[in-house]
Design brief:
By secondary structure, the protein is an alpha/beta fold. The chain has two domains: 5-140 and 304-321, NAD(P)-binding Rossmann-like Domain (Rossmann fold, 3-Layer(aba) Sandwich), CATH 3.40.50; 141-298 and 330-347, Dihydrodipicolinate Reductase, domain 2 (2-Layer Sandwich). The chain contains eleven helices and 15 strands. It has helices spanning 5-16, 28-38, 53-63, 72-76, 93-102, 117-129, 144-154, 187-191, 194-204, 301-315, 323-342; strands spanning 19-24, 43-49, 67-69, 83-86, 106-109, 134-136, 163-171, 208-216, 235-242, 247-256, 265-270, 273-277, 282-286, 290-294, 346-347. The strands form two sheets. A nine-stranded mixed sheet has the order 14-13-12-11-7-10-9-8-15. A six-stranded parallel sheet has the order 3-2-1-4-5-6, sandwiched between helices. A hairpin with a 3-residue loop joins β13 and β14 (290-294). α2 packs across α10 and α9 (194-204) crosses α11 (323-342). The longest helix has 20 residues, at 323-342.
Amino acid sequence: MNISLKDHLKVGCYLNQRLGVCVVGAGERGTQHAHAWSKIGSVDLISVADVNPLRARRLAKDLKFKFWSTDFESAILREGVNVVSICTPAFYHPEIAIFAASHGKHILCEKPIALTIEDAERMIHTARTNKVKLCIGFQRRYSRYFEVLADLISDGEIGRPVMYRLESAVEIRPKKAMHDMKRGNAGPIVDGCCHFFDLWRLIFHSEPKEVIAKGFVFARDREELQDIEELAPDTAAIIVEFVSGDLGVITISWGLPPGVRGRSGSDVLGPEGVILLEKESMTIIKEGGNVRRVGPFVEDALLNEVQDFIDCVLTGREPKATGEDGLVALKVSLAALESMFSGKPVKVTT
């Protein structure tokens, strides 16, 4: 491919351009974001915000951010900030993202995008109106592992249609906000399953059509969660049908007693075989004892995501996981909750 002098100059300009980052939320996920940003030489660590001053100050000190604050507005408005990583409970995502976008800042927002369709649409609209990028933290889109899986499915390695099965059963989450339906992350159906609702779109090359779900609140009587006004369902079985005819199936629980875990794992079944999904590799098993191993894949998906987002900001292209992608995943989550409460299948409109 021939590259013009103009393109050479443009690339050189991008390589020399620095971006300033603000991280909002200095908990576990915010710390992971901050460490990812710190590994990129062209990024200046400007500010950290967290309602807990000890956490904000500690993260700023550990990674040498220039400023820290207990309010996100002042942190975002610090001179030099171009990009904001939002790592708070999902309830707060819309307020922070809309403020950041309104002030011309590009946004890398952790999933789920929001708790309501209306809030997600406002985030998308504000980012578009202010011509800033809005990326949602679906890390699996930045993983070579899942790119290869998508190719295997598309190439008909195990035939079509396929069924992707995931099971995960863990104890009550240590962060209580994960269980808060209204002012937190709305439980595993919204906060955890959204990763797979998005991933299935990628590997099936199709859109969700209908959802059916059943579930419970296992942890309803746990003393440590009694101050939460409305507990989210923490245990569910969910089937998502796609336009392609493929199925995504999840059984998940965040409601087991402390120290107790169930079986976790995933695979993809097809009429011609199965793909076992292991931590860093895959095993394809087909008729006649035909077994093939793919991988291993050793990668840092969050670092890949951050690097890709920098490229989006500098070149103007869209992120791999847009606000619209976040909205579709949220619609599937809310359809699953509606199905659970109504006892009926729910159509998904994308």
